[in-house]
Specification:
heterodimer; A: mainly alpha; B: alpha/beta; Rossmann fold; 2 domains; 14 helices; 15 strands
Chain lengths: 384, 417
């Protein structure tokens, strides 16, 4: 696929025409919110390269949310910061990798938690841990290597599964996920079997102990924002448009000269990088990794999070993660201790029942009733 | 820029710490909170629920009040996974602000919670039911106490009983994690010393459904099986082994032959009769304290209300640990000041009266206690229960082996093929 082909798809295709007015609209709203955005030094220092992009896309509610997440750890307790907020961000990143694949690529992969787990296991096995078989390499080497392994693993999964569709993709990725679970459970030379790895902690860099709640929260926040904006940016690049094209009508994209398989495998690689980042943060968060972290329950939980939030926009993954983690942590306080899973299941059922698009769909409905009309940024799926 | 950021983060951490300190001061005078963690989900759900009953029983025997202070139990659940257990514990400690923590139930969880306890020196952690050796043997935590004996201690005496029955060669089928490693060691340390042989050890994943490959591996020349599987796993194995036509005599691990397995309602359960095993409890032990404990349990949790006919191992160990927590509180008159120093001192020195005899702690805050060798019998009503064939007192964590020579049990240690 040459760059010229991408561009032609952008300029002549239906999808390209639809995106541009949207971008102009957001540019206008960004102009209004720009002074507030510039006043926040955190954004500028963290992502100077993307400054132009930020100015174009930021609006008032972005600034509001950003201020909220930046101020949260200063008002919330360390427990809330660490266990609820940081954990939500981590699972948000992992669910984002799935909602990118499913929402923009039309491929529901249940193996995202396995990819994250692979990165986590790589950090534990190559870096320092309480287990003798860990190699104890420097984190500066271990983390990029772990991400690379996750990307390769995800690419392999994609390469195996992109020729299938719908329910078959789910089945094949579920099979890979379960196989990975049994591999880590029964392999002792690399994965240390049932016990996995204990004492896998983030390194101390710049004199900051990244394991204490506030620094760890900001670490997660940084990567969550990076992942969120990266996906926001990516879906508007020629690659992102082509991916949405293959989701809507793969045959037409093929006849236009696009390599559908390559586009999809590339999408898997991108999602593997995201899931890998989530996996590294997750192993640091728990301080340990064991086969239970990549068991069937968690494979499905990631899908639950993504569906709960809504797959039409990257923010859905984080919304879903917040609701999921809040329920997991506090449902036991609401009801008889032996029955708290009923609350969790009930809430999921209610959300999916009343809003097939998850929390985002609920939000869009509310906007339709009470606010000016609103278009979700992802182009809706069209029947061929 | 880097420097200012560092100072900024540090000052915020200080502010957070100050807020936390003022928060604890505010909590004075309120009921004393004790966290209770057991597995209400996953493979040990039945055992976890019974563990909760045991802990509640210890509290209700004191009327819910110790040294004039009302005790509030805050419960949490896990699913036998270490990360879930640590998350649940963290919520109890950091969000609900419990001052004493009792739990968790299974081996891997125990090690993870022990590691977490080092980061929370202001809270005293008392084990629930977990029986992995490493918890109190390597890398010990000064605020983690265990008043129940652990997996290896529970199997002392079984090796001799097996030799007495004439079992010279035994195949071991056990779940593949820390607790069964300890159990296997407790058995083999004695069995191998007496001349027994263990040609094959089959390690199966926790929660496995299909045991056909394990059954196919049973060598022709063994004369007994040692099955160390818990809950649903044990039931699955027993059913499949019977269906495959197996007829070798069996020995059980401490949680294989517990009330939650004996109460399995399938028709194959009669095959369990005659099975020898060892553990910290025996249903038909005739000590007066034990009988009183069983009577209390039956009164509080009759079978009609979901209780077992006789308290399970998990009810017993949770009862023991919760009783230790409360007895310690009573001994210091509810005084938890000075980073709970007095309380911990009292716990370390305490001689705990348990239904099966006195328990002391060693220098690693690990219990030295009693083990029973038992045999499964069927009573007149058709209930299965265990009968004591031998009682071994003062079993310590190194099984009587010198500390320098003692090696922790793993998949390959010990070995006598």
């Amino acid at each position: 696929m040459s760059a010229a082909k991408w561009r032609r798809a952008m300029n002549t295709g239906l999808t390209g025409a639809r995106v541009r007015p949207l971008m102009q609209a957001s540019a206008q709203s960004a102009a209004r919110a720009a002074p507030a955005a510039a006043a926040d030094p955190h954004v500028n220092s963290d992502a100077p390269r993307w400054l132009k992009f930020l100015w174009r896309t930021l609006s008032a509610r972005h600034v509001f949310v950003l201020a909220f997440v930046l101020l949260l750890p200063f008002v919330a307790s360390p427990f809330f910061t660490y266990q609820v907020a940081a954990q939500s961000l981590i699972f948000g990143i992992i669910a984002l990798s799935l909602s990118f694949l499913a929402g923009y690529g039309g491929m529901v992969s249940l193996a995202q938690m396995s990819v994250a787990g692979m990165a986590g296991y790589a950090v534990a096995a190559l870096g320092a841990s309480g287990t003798a078989s860990s190699l104890g390499w420097h984190w500066g080497l271990v983390v990029p290597l772990a991400l690379l392994i996750a990307v390769v693993f995800s690419t392999l999964i994609g390469w195996l599964s992109v020729r299938t569709d719908g329910i078959y993709t789910i089945m094949i990725t579920l099979a890979i996920g379960v196989a990975f679970y049994y591999l880590v459970l029964q392999n002792y030379t690399v994965f240390n079997g049932f016990q996995g790895f204990q004492k896998v902690y983030p390194p101390t860099v710049w004199g900051i102990n990244w394991r204490s709640p506030m620094p760890f929260y900001f670490l997660c926040l940084f990567w969550a924002l990076a992942g969120y904006f990266a996906i926001q940016w990516l879906v508007r690049t020629p690659f992102g448009i082509a991916l949405q094209g293959t989701r809507d009508n793969a045959r037409r994209m093929n006849s236009l000269g696009f390599n559908v398989t390559a586009t999809r495998v590339l999408a898997y690689a991108v999602s593997g990088l995201l899931a890998g980042v989530g996996g590294v943060l997750l192993v640091w968060y728990n301080g340990l990794i064991s086969p239970g972290s990549v068991g069937t329950g968690w494979l499905i939980n990631v899908l639950v999070i993504a569906v709960l939030g809504g797959m039409k926009h990257p923010i859905g993954a984080f919304l879903g993660a917040i609701v999921f983690i809040l329920l997991q942590t506090f449902a036991i306080d609401l009801i008889d201790r032996e029955r708290f899973n009923l609350v969790i299941g009930g809430v999921f059922l209610a959300i999916v029942l009343f809003s097939p698009d998850g929390l985002l769909g609920l939000w869009a409905k509310l906007r339709m009733h009470f606010g000016p009309s609103q278009v979700l940024t992802s182009t809706p799926r069209r029947q061929p | 820029m880097k420097l200012s950021k560092r100072i900024w983060i540090r000052s915020m951490l200080c502010a957070a710490a100050a807020a936390a300190v003022s928060g604890t001061a505010f909590a004075q005078g309120a009921p004393l909170k004790i966290g209770l963690l057991a597995t209400l989900e996953g493979p040990f759900a039945a055992g976890g629920a019974d563990g909760m009953r045991g802990a509640e029983l210890a509290l209700s025997q004191r009327g819910g009040v110790v040294a004039g202070r009302k005790i509030e139990l805050i419960k949490a659940s896990s699913n036998a996974q270490p990360d879930v257990a640590v998350n649940a514990t963290r919520k109890l400690v950091e969000q609900d602000k419990v001052e004493i923590m009792v739990g968790p139930l299974s081996g891997g969880e125990g090690i993870a919670v022990k590691d977490y306890s080092k980061t929370q020196p202001q809270v005293t952690f008392i084990n629930g039911g977990s029986g992995a050796q490493a918890t109190t043997l390597v890398n010990t935590s000064p605020n983690f106490f265990r008043f129940n004996t652990e997996g290896a201690q529970w199997m002392v005496g079984l090796g001799k009983a097996a030799m007495d029955k004439g079992f010279k060669r035994t195949m071991i089928i056990a779940e593949d994690y820390a607790f069964p490693y300890s159990q296997v060691q407790g058995f083999m340390a004695e069995y191998c010393r007496l001349g027994g042989k263990v040609p094959v050890k089959a390690w199966v994943p926790l929660g496995a459904k299909d045991y056909s490959s394990v059954i196919a591996r049973i060598p022709k020349d063994v004369d007994s099986l040692l099955v160390i599987l818990g809950g649903a796993d044990a039931v699955n194995f027993l059913t499949q082994y019977e269906n495959a036509g197996g007829d070798l005599p069996m020995m059980g691990g401490s949680i294989t032959v517990s009330q939650d397995v004996l109460n399995y309602k399938g028709k194959r359960r009669d095959s369990l009769v005659g099975t020898i095993s060892a553990g910290p409890v025996a249903d038909n032990f005739d000590g007066a304290d034990w009988k009183a404990f069983v009577a209390d349990y039956r009164k509080a949790y009759p079978v009609s209300a979901g209780g077992f006919p006789s308290p399970s191992l998990f009810a017993f160990v949770y009862y023991t640990n919760m009783k230790a927590a409360l007895d310690g509180l009573a001994a210091v008159n509810g005084d938890l000041s000075g980073g709970q120093a007095k309380y911990r001192e009292a716990l370390s020195k305490m001689v705990l009266k348990t239904p099966t005899g006195d328990v002391r702690l060693d220098s690693n805050r690990q219990a030295i206690g009693t083990t029973f060798v038992t045999e499964v019998v069927k009573d007149a009503q058709g209930n299965l229960s265990t009968k004591v064939s031998r009682k071994v007192d003062n079993v310590d964590q190194t099984l009587g082996i010198k500390k320098e020579d003692f090696q922790m049990g793993t998949r390959d240690v010990p070995a006598c093929p």
